[in-house]
TrEMBL record:
TM spans (from-to): none
Stored SUPFAM superfamilies: NAD(P)-binding Rossmann-fold domains
Protein name: SDR family oxidoreductase
GO molecular function, one term: oxidoreductase activity
Family stated for the protein in its record: Belongs to the short-chain dehydrogenases/reductases (SDR) family.
Source species: Bacteroides cellulosilyticus
Length: 283
């Protein structure tokens, strides 16, 4: 039956159920083709959250450029979106290399004439290399800062060049609750994500007069694969709504910020974490 397994009206929504090897998700559309004619660029588009964002934007009518460094992973996302009857294209480039970023954005404009939306979703922590900061290798620190902070800044700069000339555009940067509250052994990651929040505020003040809206979306724990019932219950206990974060929770916020309903919103940070960052929870 393909990727687009089911589209039907349900209580005023169009519901698209998307198959996922580890975790199925649903896309609920208030109306079809809300973003028809738009061109969206999504970095980190082959990751779990990035994939959900790409699929959501494409399902609402946008032409989505799925970006990353791994051709095979990007193509997989592009193929499933196109197989569903939506529009996506692969865009391979390295967000750490200025020429690579510049050439990629030039290509998008050359092929599609414009960029309406940039979503900076590429990033990540040191993972297995995470450790106490005084023991951390500065090469690891530089790597985390570059891929999260510098990469987001560089992509924003290139997108803005085209958006300013058109007098409109939207940019959404994905941060993390670690950037809000910090986390032991993830100091460099916290610094990078907090830096993105401050960057968004500054750029929003600079570019508002040019018709550009830039905001930040900060996810909490998002389920990225299959887990057992006990693990699920532990995740639920980390927040105040006793639930777990899903990729579509983040893509829902992206869709809202890209909609006409959000035109008077800029420079803000939207935390999507079930209230986890509100305060301590004992159980």
């Amino acid at each position: 039956m393909g990727i687009k397994n089911l589209i039907r009206r349900l209580k005023g929504y169009f519901v698209i159920r998307v198959k996922e090897v580890c975790l199925p998700y649903e896309i609920k559309l208030i109306k079809e083709n809300r973003f028809e004619g738009q061109v969206a660029v999504v970095t980190g588009g082959s990751g779990v959250i990035g994939r959900a964002i790409c699929y959501r934007l494409a399902a609402e009518g946008a032409l989505v450029y799925v970006c990353g460094t791994n051709q095979e992973r990007i193509s997989s996302v592009v193929d499933e979106i196109n197989a569903a009857g939506f529009s996506a294209r692969p865009l391979v480039f390295n967000i750490l290399e200025e020429n690579s970023v510049r050439n990629a954005f030039n290509l998008v404009v050359r092929l599609s004439s414009k960029i309406d939306l940039l979503v900076c979703c590429a990033g990540g922590g040191a993972r297995e290399k995470s450790c106490a900061f005084i023991e951390q290798d500065m090469n690891v620190v530089d790597s985390v800062l570059n891929v999260n902070l510098r990469g987001g800044i560089l992509c924003t700069k290139e997108a803005c060049k085209y958006m300013v000339s058109r007098g409109k555009g939207k940019i959404i940067i994905i941060s993390s609750t670690v950037g809000l509250q910090g986390m032991p052994a993830y100091s460099e990651y916290a610094a990078a994500k907090a830096g993105l929040m401050a960057f968004v505020k500054s750029i929003a003040m600079e570019l508002g007069k040019n018709g550009i809206r830039i905001n930040c979306v900060t996810p909490g724990i998002v389920q990225r694969g299959s887990i057992d019932e006990n693990q699920m219950e532990r995740i639920k206990k980390t927040n105040w709504v006793n639930d777990y974060g899903k990729p579509e929770d983040i893509s829902n916020m992206i869709a809202f910020l890209n909609s006409d309903e959000a035109t008077f919103i800029t420079g803000q940070n939207f935390v999507v974490d079930g209230g986890r960052s509100l305060g301590l929870k004992n159980n």
